[in-house]
Amino acid sequence: MLHSTVSPSLPTSKAEQEDSQEGSQEINDVAFLDTVMDQMLQQGLVDRRRVYVTGFSNGAAMTFQYAARRSHRLAAIAPVAGYCRGTLPPSTHPVPTLYLIGDADPLVPLHGGQVPSPWEGRLVRRPPVAESLERWATWLGCSPIPRLIEDTPLYRREIYPGTVTFEVLIVKGLGHHWPGGRGGWSARIAGPHHTHLNATDMIWHFFRQHSIPEVATGA
């Protein structure tokens, strides 16, 4: 099995925060990711049946949007601590999804509310995360009502029942950080950080369980 990872280090959008839509007409994230994927496929670096996308914060929103528009290219996705924004086209190929977020995230709060934006210097309204998850569950053809299947000292796991896997992992005591990561932002801005749970390992375990059926692959 070919293992290769692409991690763009520069933002593909001029939007500095998730609420901003500025620059969206000039920068096409979907086209950019298409180009990256095409180049890797042409170079024989990846198995086209095992292409996955994950992203944190703005990258989570990008992950949702790319999956909605290029679902036939993806075996699974794992958005982390971000919203499902924008218009979703009709679903033709539901994509197995693992979503992760901390329950102490002050920038993408589970229950929504007024949030002090570190980018804008003012309060902005954030919607409940459940609204994004319900939208995505509906797009996948799953029930919009989650079911709790596991509650541990480290996390709470929920699923949205349906014919395609949609799991949600809520990490306890974690702010706006990649679970298990270094926590590059201060607690004052992003909330508490800990490394009790490794999202990278959990996401890779999830990805390994999914591949695109041979008849469904396409460029």
From TrEMBL:
Keywords: Carbohydrate metabolism, Hydrolase, Polysaccharide degradation, Secreted, Signal, Xylan degradation. Residues 1-14 have a biased composition (Polar residues). GO terms for cellular component: extracellular region. GO terms for molecular function: feruloyl esterase activity. Residues 1-24 are annotated as: Disordered. Residues 21-113 form the Phospholipase/carboxylesterase/thioesterase domain. Signal peptide: none annotated. It is found in: Secreted. GO terms for biological process: xylan catabolic process. Pfam families: Abhydrolase_2. It comes from the Bacteria. This is Phospholipase/carboxylesterase/thioesterase domain-containing protein. It comes from Thermogemmata fonticola.
